[in-house]
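Fold this complex.
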Amino acid sequence: MAQQPSMYTDVSDIGEFGLIAHLRDTLGPDVPDEVHTGIGDDAAVIRQSDGRVQAYTTDSLIEGVHFDRTFMPMEHLGFKLMSVNVSDLAAMNVSPEYALITIGLPKNITVEHLRTLYEGIKKACDAYGITVVGGDTTSAHALTLSVTAWGSAEAEAVVQRSGAQVGDAICVTGDLGASYAGLKILADERKRLEDEGDDFEPALDAFPYVIRRHLAPPAQEASVRRWRNAGFKPHALIDISDGLSSEIHHICEAGDVGARLFAPTLPIHPETRSVADHFGDDVDVYAFFGGEDYELLFTADESDLDALDETTYTIIGEVTDASKGVLVEQGDGTAIPMQPGGFDHFDENDDGAA
Amino acid sequence: MAQQPSMYTDVSDIGEFGLIAHLRDTLGPDVPDEVHTGIGDDAAVIRQSDGRVQAYTTDSLIEGVHFDRTFMPMEHLGFKLMSVNVSDLAAMNVSPEYALITIGLPKNITVEHLRTLYEGIKKACDAYGITVVGGDTTSAHALTLSVTAWGSAEAEAVVQRSGAQVGDAICVTGDLGASYAGLKILADERKRLEDEGDDFEPALDAFPYVIRRHLAPPAQEASVRRWRNAGFKPHALIDISDGLSSEIHHICEAGDVGARLFAPTLPIHPETRSVADHFGDDVDVYAFFGGEDYELLFTADESDLDALDETTYTIIGEVTDASKGVLVEQGDGTAIPMQPGGFDHFDENDDGAA
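Structure:
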């Protein structure tokens, strides 16, 4: 048969954000007054009758898409599953309270795998203060894990990605690029396993920090709690799941501002630098585009930062007028425009709407 | 290598309910006072600070597990996705208000498929009064759809599966076995398609009711609203997702009661009978074990039923002492014990905890 021109559009032609826009358009922009934040931020926020709000998020980890079971211990997977959801609530300045967990089981999984997975979930629930109240189990083609998590807050406490003010300091918690460095090491191990077969010996001991950051990243729920206790509230807030570059663009678009980042100030762990050196990579690429760091990116009035312990964040730039775009200033004082870049959602990351 | 005895336990050895018990044990039986209903009912129920409660459920539909895209129009799939979740809330006597939708996309899906899926979701949201506030999009091995839905209610309005009283009438909404009859027709079409190849001509027109009941079942949200308006409240309530037999056993176990069902009273649509006749099957098997009817099974004081329009429910039995077990009385007055039976969750159905 002759090839006909296709009537159909590939999903890759419109991308994840195009899909979310379609969904929002179809379901209608008319939402009830109770909806404080709908489709498009890290979490949805609903007003309650008592004046408080509840923030809701959902995120999935699918075998072969988000993780490789060969190098992902079940306990770490359970912990990470909760972290990726808690991170989305932290990105609204909200702590989690409850969760529903859906587990889709392939044929090649055992009860012992699942018990260990549950142990990791339990550890995370204890760390983050979450009560699991239900879920769903079903069969699936690959191990498919999905969580919905929510928590309540004062309405005034919620921080969206849109609130950046010109002149704000741009800050991050923790360090950047470590998760990607861990992924590089694990991918290299996988390749060695395939190449060397029976002669393969794992060599993971040299980089424990970055591997752990990839396999079982902590979410910044503790940062949110510290901020609450210190009376600190950022102007704009987002979590770094898709890489600093992608997230700073989200903040600039949502707030109609620009940003000037100072490359030499990016907080990078020594082990992350070692991994980049090992592979002959530029470590700034890890920090800007790596993704899955689950740190928080926020903007704030610089004087408000005095309320915080200065070891808990790093100033990496300043918010500018929208007309300036997003610039990265190098050590020599030159500044170059930055594209969103980051990793394609449909290959590496999820973290879609809400 | 010689085969070693396995250190591992197959999931099928402990089953879905065994897994849920493991999860509950691992995460600890100590839940906060705010948890009205935790793991194990159709939905989780959380007390709010204003004295009301919120009920939460999550349910998934996975291609190749819960549906066959060959015979599942995308619009119906979107509608069914919402119905299976709304049904779990209706099973707590709660109407839905909000939902998060997660969509896992295989490579062979197009934007046009998704638009049509969204249309079905939109229709269901309009029918059930749901606002979609967010979700997640990711890639997946097969089309993977997951929803979390929730709604609020007066605390006293919530009905659990555990409240049946000896002497209660056992009732169902709608009719039973139609979804399974529809599945039989579709499976037969699929077989004919494989056998006949290019000569295959679809023959779906003869059974529109049962096919629709399988592809786009309505949830009984309207029943719940009618009950609320009539001031009616059942003693025990569950939705019939896994078949009448399985669900009546859940009600009896949770309430520590028995049941006597009257087989001749089971409400069965004429078209469902025609399909059973067509295949030479016993239609009662469809009604007892078919599953996916998404009707409500409830028990109530018979005098309370006077508040309801009698065309909206059918009395199919009575609640007895636990020592009597679950019996089915035939037309000739003989009664036989009934096993839970129904379909294996890991092959046909999901609808796990919560």
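Chain A touches chain B through 82 residues (CB under 8 Å).
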